[in-house]
Amino acid sequence: MDNTLFDLSGKVAVVTGGNGGIGLGMAKGMANAGATIVVAGRDATKNTDAVKQLQALGAKASAIPVDVLKEDSCRALIADTMKAHGRIDILVNNAGMGIRKQPEQYTLTEWHTVLDSNLTSAFLCSHAAFEPMKKGGGGKIVNIGSMMSIFGAPFATAYAASKGGIVQMTKSMATAWAKDNIQVNAILPGWIDTALTRRAREQVDGLHNSVLKRTPAGRWGEPSDFAGIAVFLAAAASDFVTGAAITVDGGYSVLA
After folding, report:
1. Which positions are catalytic?
2. Structural domains in the chain, sorted by start
């Protein structure tokens, strides 16, 4: 096998929400493949801890604070990355959140908060990264959707809408930017053991057992399960893969 297919040496990767959970799992995978990692998140303490974990792997890593609800902050993230490193090769739009309520219980503010956190922020960061990637000869954008991009759930109206939008935005960007050698793909996580889903298990009765029963792999996913897919979609191995939405869910979405 050509080892350069999965070599990220010399590449710079920005990961929003990269200070924990799936984002950090992806960042660790890319760091082990040689990438320089920029951790982007609001929580300075978590940012610092994530950078230390990445540096312990021998990686070059730093943090840039970002509030993905603010356009100026999203654009500053990309601009500051260019100032610090002179390039951006990989953008992982992972930042996101959810508000678990029945649809009739949502306020308009809550609706906009979820959509802006999960979908609009991914658009803004991608929009800002386009010109630097184009000038650099190409790039990789990885958008984090969800199994809620496929399924519905009574407590996830805004979240599902945002994650369904991620898939369609991914396809549109992929077709628009293929000529510029920018591949845009999405990852659709299933039930992963993170702080977000631990709260879900507290709020939704029977969720833990129902997930285990439906998942052919017989377990919840771990953030480390995203290291490999992150490297693949960030590396030359995926140069002819664009517009895809890849499930990482232990088979949950294919079980009838």
Report:
1. 159
2. 3-246 (3.40.50.720)
